[in-house]
Amino acid sequence: MINQELLDILCCPQTKADLVLDENFLVSVDKVTRKRYRIEDDIPIMLIEEAETLSIEEWQEIMKKHGKIIE
């Protein structure tokens, strides 16, 4: 599990947006890119080319779950 201290300093490598921890993924709060980075063996895989782009619906659901404001 990623600790809060590490989560506080990590950001999306593509947009530099904040990330939220959602199960075994880090999800960018950037509405345009909607990147999701997987975590393997407690290590975030922060490679842009390996990130998944979420649908707007999936991204909105995750943001709502984590109390992020959606504009």
The total count of helices amounts to 2
Number of domains: 1
Helical content stands at 10-25%
- Overall shape: it is globular
* The CATH architecture: Single Sheet
CATH topology, which one? N-terminal domain of TfIIb
Describe the protein:
This protein is α+β, with helices and mostly antiparallel strands and 71 residues long. It starts with a helix and ends in a 6-residue tail after the last helix. It is built from two helices and five strands. Strands 1, 2, 3, 4 and 5 form a five-stranded antiparallel β-sheet that branches. The protein has one domain: N-terminal domain of TfIIb.
List the helices and strands and how they pair.
Blueprint: H1 4-9, E1 19-22, E2 25-28, E3 35-40, E4 43-44, E5 52-53, H2 56-65
Antiparallel strand pairs: 1-2, 2-3, 3-4, 3-5
In short:
With 71 residues, this protein is α+β, with helices and mostly antiparallel strands.
Which properties best describe this structure?
5 strands; 71 residues; N-terminal domain of TfIIb; alpha+beta; 5-stranded antiparallel beta sheet; 2 helices
